[in-house]
Amino acid sequence: MADKKTDERVTQDRKKADSPRSLSGLGPFLRPYKLQIGLAALFLFMAAASTLVLPVALKSLIDSGLVSADPAARVMALRGHFLALFAVGAALGLFSALRFYMVSWIGERVTADLRNAVYAHVVEQSPEFFESTQTGEVLSRLTTDTTLVQTVVGSSLSMGLRNTVMGIGALGMLIITNPLVMTQVLGILVLVVLPSLVFGKRVRKLSRASQDRVADTSAIAAEVLNAIPVVQSYNQQGREAARFATASEAAFETARKRTRIRSMLVAFIITATFGALLWGLYQGTQAVIRGDISAGHLGQTVVYVLIFVSSVAVLSEVYGDLLRAAGATERLMELLSSQSPVADPLLPTALPAVQVGSAVQLRHVTFHYPSRPLHASLRDVSLDVARGETVALVGPSGAGKSTVLQLLLRYYDAQQGSVTIDGVPVQEVALAELRARVGIVPQDSVVFSTSALENIRYGRPGASDDEVKAAAKAAFAHEFIEALPEGYTTFLGERGVRLSGGQRQRIAIARAMLKNPPLLLLDEATSALDAESERMVQAALDAAMCGRTTIVVAHRLATVLRADRIIVLDHGRVVETGTHAELVTQGGLYARLAAMQFDIDSPQPAAAIG
Questions:
Q1: 314 within 8 A of 269, measured Cβ to Cβ
Q2: CA angle 412–415–420, rounded 5-degree value
Q3: 321 and 151 in contact (C-beta within 8 Å)?
Q4: Is 556 helix (H, G, I), strand (E, B) or coil?
Q5: Which of 111-115, 126-130, 262-266 has the highest mean predicted lDDT (pLDDT)?
Q6: Do 24-337 and 352-437+517-610 have matching folds?
Q7: CB-count exposure of residue 118 (10 Å: 0-12, 13-18, 19+)
Q8: Taking 70 as the threshold, does the pLDDT of residue 199 lie above it?
Q9: Residue 404, exposed/middle/buried by CB under 10 A (0-12, 13-18, 19+)?
Q10: How many whole angstroms separate alpha carbon 573 and alpha carbon 283?
C-alpha cells in the first residue's frame, strides 16, 4: 500500500513538472526583488509600447507625408514624421537596454540565490540522503538545472512577456482597424491552438527525460573521476569512456526526439499563424483597391501583422524554454523539499559542561541502515564509556564498529534503544552542539583543495597560525608540511593528491587535535601509516587521549593494547569485553584475532578484520 501511494505521488509530481506551473517554485526567490521586478516590468511595457507606436507613425508618414499634393508641405511633413519615427526608435532602444539590464540582473541574482539555497540544504542532509542520491545527480542539478532557470528568468521569460504584450497589442490594433477580417482570422487561429496542445504535451515529457539523461552522464563522470587511480590500475579507461559515451548517446537521442517534436511544433504554429494573417492581409489589399481604406492604413496593418507573427514565433520558442526550465525547477524543488530524518529537536537540551572527557552510553541499541532494512548492523547493543576512558572496538568486517561512531555523531538515529552523551539522549541535543563536542579521525582521511594550514584549521576556523602549527607538531605533521614547496601555504591538490596516505591521515589527526573535543573517535586512524609513522602518531594520539574520552576502532590490534577496555563485536552484537590480557586468556574471538596478528604460526583460523 505504501509503495502504491509513493508511486501515485511520484506520478502527480511528474504531471506537475509537465507544465510551466512548476516555475511557481521560484516565487520565494523572486519575492525579495519586487522593486527590481517592477522596474523590469515597467521598462518591458515601455519598450513594447514603443514598438506598437511605430506602425501608427508609419501610417501617418504614408498618408500625410507621401500622399500630400503640395511638394513643400510634403517635405516639411516628411521631416516631422521622420523625427517622430526617430524619437520612437530612440525610446525603444533606451527602454530595451534598461529592460535587458534589469532582467539579466534578476536572472543572475535569483540563480545565485537558488544555487546557494539548494547547496546549503543538501549539505545539511544526513548520510541516508546520499545512500539513495548520487553526487553527480546533485551536481547536475546545481549546474545544468540552475543554468536553465537562469536562461528563463534572465532572458526567455522577459522575451516571452515582451512578445506577449506586443502580440496582444498588435492583435488588438488589427481588430480595431479591421474588425471583420480579424474576426475570421481569429477563428482560424483557434484551430491552430488545438494541435499545438498535443505537440506541447509530448515536448514537456521529453524535456524532463532529456534532463534526467544529462544527469546520468554527470553521475557517471563524478563517480569515475573520483576513482581515477583505480580505473587506471585496472586498465578500464576504455570501458569507462564507453560507458560514458553510451549515457551521452542516450542523452543525445532523447534531446534529438525533443528537438524534433519541438521543431515540428514551431513550424506548425508559425506556418498556420502566418497563413491565417496572410488571408487577413489579402482582404486588406482588396479593401485598398475598393477604396475602403487608405494606403497608410494598409501599411500599418502590414507592420502589425509582422509584429504579431514575429511575437508568435518568439513565444513558441520561449514556451519550449519554459517547459525545460519547469522540469529543471521541479528537480531543484525536489532537492529543497527533501527532509533529513536527522534534524534538530524543536526544544533542544543543552549538554552539561565537562572537565574531563564525556560519558557515553548505549542501551539496547538496534540499528538498520536505510539501504539495508533487513540487515541489522547492531543488535541489542549496550555499552558504557566513562569520562576519560579509552575504549577500543574490534571485530571482523561488518561487525558494527564504525556504526557505533556514526550513531554517536548522529549521522543516523537508532530504530530501537537509546544513545546518550553526558546523560543526554543525542536526539534531544542540537546537532551543532553535539558535533562540537565530538572529534573524529576517519579511516578515509579527507583533505580539501586548499592549503595545509587551512586544512588543519578546518577543525577550529578561529584558530591562529601558531595554534595550527602546534596541532601539526603534536600529530607529527609539522616536519613534512615544512618540507613542502611553500610550507603551510602549499596547495595540497584535489582530495590531497600531493600527499601520501599517511600524510593525509596525519593532517586529519592534527585537525581533530586542534578541535580539542572532550570525546574523540578514532576510526582506524593509523591504518594508512607505515611502522615508523604509526609509532610517532600513536605517541601523539596517546597524548591527545589524556583528559578526554576516546573510542578507538581498529583492525590492527597492536594499536589498542593500551586501551582501558576492549569491546569485541561480531555480527552486530557485543560478544566479549575486557583488557587485552583478559580477552586472550578467554580463548574467544579476540584470542583468535590476536593469534593471527601476533603469532603467525598459530593454526587457529581467524576472521578477516576490518
A1: no
A2: 65
A3: yes
A4: coil
A5: 111-115
A6: no
A7: buried
A8: no
A9: buried
A10: 90
CA distance 118 to 478: 38
* Cell matching residue 282: 489579402
For the domain made up of 24-337, the CATH class stated in words is mainly alpha
Residue spans of the domains in the chain: they are: 24-337, 352-437+517-610, 447-508
User: Strands 416-421, 565-570: parallel, antiparallel or unpaired by DSSP?
Assistant: unpaired
Residue 12's pLDDT is 46
At residue 98, what is the residue type?
Answer: L
Helix (H, G, I), strand (E, B) or coil at 604: coil
Q: In a 10 Å sphere around its CB, with 0-12 CB exposed, 13-18 middle and 19+ buried, how is residue 530 labelled?
A: exposed
> Cα–Cα distance between 18 and 206 in angstroms, integer?
9
Q: How many CB atoms lie within 10 A of CB 83?
A: 10
C-alpha cell at 10: 511520484
Written as nine digits, the cell of 276 is 491565417
SS3 at position 373? coil
Q: For residues 416 and 468, is the Cβ–Cβ distance under 8 A? A: no
Three cell numbers at 236? 578500464
Q: How far is CA 418 from CA 43, 294, 367, 375, 384, in A?
A: 62, 90, 11, 19, 12
Contacts of 57 (CB under 8 A, 6+ apart): 81, 84, 85, 88
Q: Can you say whether residue 546 is alpha, beta or left, with left for phi > 0 and alpha for psi between -120 and 50 degrees?
A: beta
Strand order in the sheet with 438-441: 438-441, 519-523, 549-553, 390-394, 565-570, 573-578
30 Cβ contact list (under 8 Å, min separation 6): 37, 106, 110, 153
Distance CA 574, CA 585 (A): 18
Strand partners, 552: 392, 522
C-alpha pair distances (Å), 205 with each of 109, 212, 323, 572: 29, 11, 9, 46
- pTM for this model (two decimals): 0.70
Q: Which fold has domain 352-437+517-610?
A: Rossmann fold (3.40.50)
The three three-digit cell numbers of residue 296, written as one number: 497608410
SS (H, E, C) 528-550: CCCHHHHHHHHHHHHHHHCCCEE
At 571-606, the pLDDT tens digits run: 899 999 988 888 888 888 888 888 877 653 333 433
Whether 297 and 283 have beta carbons less than 8 Å apart is answered as: no
Q: Are 394 and 560 in contact (CB under 8 A)?
A: yes
Supply 335's cell numbers.
Answer: 532537492
Cell numbers linked to 497: 593528491
Exposure string for 316-329, b = 16+ CB within 10 A, e = fewer: bbbbbbbbbbbbbb
Residue 124 is which amino acid? E
3-state secondary structure of 388: coil
Q: Decide: 522 and 553 in contact? Cβ < 8 Å.
A: yes
Query: In this structure, are strands 390-394 and 565-570 parallel, antiparallel, or unpaired?
Result: parallel
Instruction: Return the DSSP state at 61.
Output: I
pLDDT at 190: 66
